[in-house]
Amino acid sequence: MTFDTLGLFEPLLKTLASLNYQTPTPLQLQSIPAMLQRRDLIATAQTGTGKTAGFALPLLQLLMTAGAPVRANSVRSLILVPTRELAEQVHQSVKTYGQDLPLRTLAAYGGVSINPQMMALRRGVDVLIATPGRLLDLHRQNAIRMSQLQVLVVDEADRMLDLGFADELDALIAILPRQRQTVLFSATFTARLEQLAAQISKDPLRIAVSTPNAAASTVQQWLVPVDRKRKTELFLHLLRDREWGQVLAFVNTRKGADCLVQAIRATGTRVEAIHGDKRQPTRLRALEEFKAGEIQVLVATGVAARGLDIADLPLVVNVDLPIVPEDYVHRIGRTGRAGASGEAVSLVSADEVTHLAAIESLIGELLTRREEAQFEPDHRLPVTTTGGQIKKKPKKPKKPKQTIQPPQPAPVTARNSRIHLGDWLENEPGDKPKPAVSSSSTGKRASARRR
Questions:
Q1: What's the pTM value of the predicted model, to 2 decimals?
Q2: What is the CATH code for 219-391?
Q3: For a FRET experiment, which of 164, 324, 426, 433 has its CA 20 to 30 Å from that of 142?
């Protein structure tokens, strides 16, 4: 099966040939014809299976073959994404696929000045890729009109909900025209995503080309048990001992990212971090340098779990396990893309066992445990099951307390039947018995008193 059998027109086929795109992925085989037929769509697939091309190619063709030219401050199609990085990635892909088409595109997100985005919208935009917050800002300032909108694409819809964009999505849906085509793409599928789809789409076609919430089979996954306080030390040891090349390392906090960068930089390794406290131009520059191979280690918080498309990335390391299990699938999905092999290593401490159990339950498999010599944890990592259960070690039965029996009085016999009453009254238990007094000495003391 080739792209020319999917109904794509000649300009797009010519571009795909120049990009050496020869065979569509299973997702693209189903999504492209469905979108060209203007069907609402819900598609779930593992990361790295061509989701962006799966919706961008038919979207560009629909815009070229139907609808009036875009008016000032209007948009003809909207692609919603959860993060700035993903907005840039999708924008670059759309520009690449539509390089021979007379369509205007724009990426709009926070962290940068809103003025250039407002200026670009004055001419009208055919494809707008935006994060929810910035899109609402543009609407509040009357910089954007939605009356010409034909197609809405929600990319990484479940992540949008995880990041707390439910209210923003409700506000955005309220300003969109009801007559539109709605497409949802995601790597994972949740009950909340099901509810969102019911609210914003009509009789959607469902596509699932892989096991929902599963990690890519091309990624080898394993973990190293370690005490939390030694995670940075272990990372540096593995980086040096295993001679790792390029590494994308994930942590959960901005402070943790900065501390890890400082420790790595002290070894002479080129490293940068991307997180919410970094200005957007700084984040983009770090990402471009990492893609170009100028940086060996890129440390990222969850902001980069999705939206990083790095060719031939060999290794992802979870220095911290993600709190949301689905984020694990997206993190390790940065490697093993487009059929390539990859490796995902997690450094797991005992206090993260509940996160580990939730991840293993989600992906339906237990992560292989490999202890590293000299880094065996003092706090052992409990055993987990694929059902998300944590096996606790059986408690050792308590030994019965030994009761001390009080000394028993000696049995009365003919030999000791005569007891000196004075000695019995004066001596407490445990005292040394007073020496017996002979009758002769008693007589001498009595005689001395009489004198």
A1: 0.65
A2: 3.40.50.300
A3: 164
